[in-house]
Amino acid sequence: MLLQRDLSQKELAQLVGVTPAAVNAWAKGRSVPRYEKIADIAEALGVAVEDAVSRRPPESTRSELEWVFQRAPQDGSRTGGNVAAYAFAANLEVLAREATQNSLDERLERRLPVTSRFVLHELTGRHLQDFLAALRWSSIERHIREAADRRQKTGRVLLDGLNELQRTGRLVLLRVDDYNATGLTGPDYDNGRFARVIRRTLDSGKSGAQGGSYGLGKAALWAASRFGLVLVNSTLSEAQDGRHERRMAGRLELPWHRVDGEDFAGPAWFGIRDRERTNSVRSWWADDATAESLYMERSDSSPGTSFLVVGAYDGSGDTEQLEDMHDQLVNGVARNFWASMVGGEQVGPLLRASVSAWRDGHVVRAERFVDPHAHEPARSRAVKAFLDGRTTAELTSREDVLKASVTLRLPARKESDATDEQRPTSHEAVLLVTPTTEDDPRPDHIAYMRSTRMVVRYKKVSDLPLGHRRFQAVLLTGVAAGVDSPDAVAAEQLLRTAEPPDHNDWTSTDDLTATYVRGARQCILDFKRAAEHAIRQLLAGQEEESDTDEGPPILRDLLTLEAPTKARTQGFPVVHAVEGDVTDSGAWKVRVTVKLPERDTPWVLAPVAKFVVRSGGNIPVKWAGMLVPERDCELTASGNLRFRAGARRGIFRGITDASTHPVAAGMSCIEVDVPRAKEITE
């Protein structure tokens, strides 16, 4: 406390009327002051008596807060921003997925669900000015402006954010709260949840059946801010320095920049100056007024964390209005976590999630919890039937749910130990299949999931029986299959290493290769193929039981037999192959082969090059100059390509404009789309 109040032992002794030796004895723990002296000490330090009694850090006021920027290294190296933020697409659905997954991984009381709340708040006028003052915006605005270099991707985003704030006088905050979660426990600098989230990158600290494994999910929060700025307020499940509530901190992620001739690495932290460390701030224990002024107040004392994304936006550009952002968050939560929100008669849901929207303190969209049965009726029905033990071996109604098992072979680990001799060699996952309605926009899909039942991937099932009834399928693997058995845990460990950073598939990764013996990838491929094969058997297998008349009810429910129609043919041009490499100037040079449906009139196409990102929409880039026709095509006056009538294949070449690349070409993959051009053919 003396360091925080910038007092010496001698000065405190004078204030409370004792000798410096007495204060030294108190500080060293050799003696304890009488209660009346503790009250005098509390008054001298400006803290509550209970803080002085327990020797815990006091609550801090807004006047004590400051931003501290990390100095640039002396070797001249620079970074263009936090690379972890580019592991995901900067859109609100990705933010909802990553933030909610992290909350589920930190669920505290296992009998109760995590409550996840997304609160949008648009500020203008006086509300905006008061918030910026509480944030000490004036001390960071110049840093942001100096870092807003148009030549860099991060710089262009920062500049756009500053321009939008000035032009519209509008700032959107997005607060992501979780309750019944562990909170950001642990010390400021050493190992613990707080340091992993606030101070470190690519440090997950997760294991077992938890969803994350890269430590990248939190980066989605910073990526969703126009300024790379996020504040936190955490209620801890385990006390730190004798306190639980309102542990607050802030982090600003900027690229390298220079202010007043001094070089800064980029990151900055918001908190209380640490007198024991050079150029550092610590988290602080906030009072109610500070939490309220920063729009960080929590609704109750349940453990968990609130993240405030300052300048929240949808990086895909699909939405800007507050109401549309609200709807996108609802859809993002529902699409990825509908199964986590399904509960049974004896087993409750793992998650409750809500979204609300405010404007200058007034409700725009009231808080409403997401209903999984409204968003995914067939799939939610399937999971609920499984939780309630009401699956069937055959269908007798349109509400029934078929259950089957799918075997996942578990390969050996490279670094085995004595316990590996008893390690399971296989795991039985649960496959659920149920009919869906005729108006389902995406029927005949299988949803893969494990752990907390977050959807890893949706995939359309191929080679289905002719005339089959529309269905939805769910594959529950590992702990999601309902039992925390050794084989389920081993399956979680395997699939966890097989997920890329954005957790959108089970595939080959460097972690899988490093952890398991050769053949692990094949085990996963075989598992996914076996799941689709099991679906086909559930559909086609019933056909074997049919008689010469109408057949049993199960077949009538599954199959709608109609006269076969003429086989469908490809109805639009597609890219058949892309060949290319990166030029010395940093551009992509590609040669593209297009496969064309046969028709009597020419196809006129407007090829588009896109940089591939891990999730969300891929990023279009411009062509440098005109495209070059090579086979069965020619340029139009508009710069598009007209392919010869009757041609089945055409080839063209092109070079991308490096100035429009979001990242260096050597660090990217490229794809080419061939949409139809909006021009009249001759």
Main features:
682 residues, alpha+beta, 12-stranded mixed beta sheet, 5-stranded mixed beta sheet, 19 helices, globular
Radius of gyration: 30 Å
Distance between the termini: 82 Å
* Strands, total number: 27
Beta-strand content? 25-35%
Oligomer: single chain
Total number of helices: 19
Helix share, percent: 25-40%
Helix/strand class: alpha+beta
**Which blocks of ≥5 consecutive residues have pLDDT under 50?**
210-214, 542-551, 559-570
Largest sheet: 12 strands, mixed
- Please tell me what the overall shape is: globular
Mean pLDDT level: 85
Describe this structure in words.
The protein is α+β, with helices and mostly antiparallel strands and 682 residues long. It contains 19 helices and 27 strands. The strands form five sheets. Strands 1, 2, 3, 4, 5, 6, 7, 8, 9, 10, 11 and 12 form a twelve-stranded mixed sheet that branches. Strand 11 (351-359) and strand 12 form a beta hairpin. The longest helix has 21 residues, at 520-540. The protein is globular and about 100 Å long. It starts with a helix and ends in a 9-residue tail after the last strand.
Summarize the entry for a quick read.
This protein is an alpha+beta fold. The chain is 26% helix and 26% strand.
Question: Which SSEs are present, and which pair or pack?
Answer:
Layout: H1 2-5, H2 9-16, H3 20-28, H4 35-45, H5 49-54, E1 65-71, H6 92-105, E2 114-124, H7 125-134, H8 141-147, H9 153-168, E3 170-179, H10 193-198, H11 219-223, E4 225-235, E5 247-252, E6 257-259, E7 262-273, E8 281-282, E9 284-285, H12 288-293, E10 304-312, H13 322-337, E11 351-359, E12 362-369, H14 372-375, H15 377-387, E13 402-409, E14 426-435, E15 445-450, E16 454-460, E17 471-476, H16 486-497, H17 510-515, H18 520-540, H19 553-558, E18 574-582, E19 588-595, E20 603-605, E21 608-611, E22 619-621, E23 628-631, E24 633-635, E25 641-643, E26 649-655, E27 670-673
Parallel strand pairs: 2-11, 15-17
Antiparallel strand pairs: 1-7, 2-3, 3-10, 4-5, 4-10, 5-7, 5-9, 6-7, 7-8, 11-12, 13-14, 14-17, 15-16, 18-19, 19-26, 20-25, 21-22, 21-27, 23-26, 24-25
Helix pairs in contact: 2-3, 6-13
